[in-house]
Amino acid sequence: VLGQTNAEAKIAWPGASVAVAELLAAHEGVLESVFPTKAGEPQGTPAPISFTVRSGLKPKARVAKPRVIIPVFPGSNCEYDTARAFRLAGAEPEILVLRNLDAAGLGESLKALADAISRSQILMIPGGFSAGDEPDGSGKFIAAVIKAPIVRDAVMELLKSRDGLALGICNGFQALIKTGLVPYGEIRDVDASAPTLFHNRIARHISRYAHTRVASVKSPWLARMEVGQVHTIPLSHGEGRFTAPASVIADLVKNGQVAFQYCDAAGAPSNRIEFNPNGSLEAVEGITSPCGRVLGKMGHSERTGAHVAKNIPGDKHQPLFQGGVDYFA
Fold this sequence. Notes:
By secondary structure, this protein is of the alpha/beta class. It has one domain (67-326): Rossmann fold (3-Layer(aba) Sandwich), CATH 3.40.50. The chain is built from nine helices and 13 strands. The strands form three sheets. A nine-stranded mixed β-sheet has the order 4-3-5-6-13-12-11-8-9, sandwiched between helices. Strand 3 (67-72), helix 2 and strand 4 (92-97) form a beta-alpha-beta unit. Helix 3 packs parallel to helix 5. The chain is globular, with a radius of gyration of 21 Å.
C-alpha cells in the first residue's frame, strides 16, 4: 500500500503535509506570466436575474419538422455539431457553404442563402472564427453578409412576417450583436451605446467548461427551461466579454432579455474568473431580442453527447434546440 485517500484537501506523509491548493498554485505559477490564468475582475457580485413570465409566442403556421438553415462562413467550425443537435431535436437542418473566392461566387452564395432562409423556419449562425476574426473584431464578415440587401430582406421576412426564429452561438452571437438582431430584433446600424462582445478580460482565448444559470424564460428557445436552472456548457472564444452601459443592461434585465448568466456550481452569478471566464458585466452569457425570437449566447450548447466530457460534473444537456423546435409544433 503506497497511500490512502482521505477527505482533507492535502497530501500528507510521515512528518509533513502540503495543501492541495498550495501545490496547484505552484504548478500553475510556473507559466502564469506567459499564459495567465488570472485577470482583473469587476467589483462586486452580480445579482441573480430572474424573469419568470413566458412569452406565449406562437407562429402563424405549425410545422411538424421545421427547417433550419445553417450558413457556413470561412472559419466556421461548429456546423456539424449544430446540425446534429437540431436533428436530434426533430428539425431538418440544411448546411449551406458560402463561397467567397471571387465576386461572382459570393453573389451566387448570397442569393442561395436568401432562398434557403425563405424556405426555412429557423436561421442558425454557428460558432467558429469567421475570416479569422479579422479585421479587428469577430463576426464582422458574417455581419456584412447578413446586412447584404438580399439577405437582410430574407431575414426580416422570416422574423417579422413568418414568425420565424434565429439563434447565434459564439461567433454567431457576435454577428447578431453587430447586426442589431440582438438586442433590438432588427437589422440596423449600432452605435456606441449598443451592447458588444469585447476581448476576454484575461486577454487571450479561453477553452473550458463553465456553469450558466437560466435568467429568463421569455424566449421560445427557453421553453423547456426554468429560471435558476444551471447547466455546464463548453466555451471557446477570444472575444466573449459582454459589455454595455449600465442603463442598457438595466433595460435588458427589465425586459427579460438576459437569457443566461455565468455562475458557480450552486447557481450564484459571479465576477470571479473561474466562474465568469471572460469577465462579462453582470455575468451575462446570452441575450435575446425584445420578443425573444432571436437569441445569442457564447456557450456551445450544441457540443454535447452521452460520452462527451464525462469527467466533468454538471448538467451538460441544455434543451435549447428542443425549445426552438417545440415552438413550431
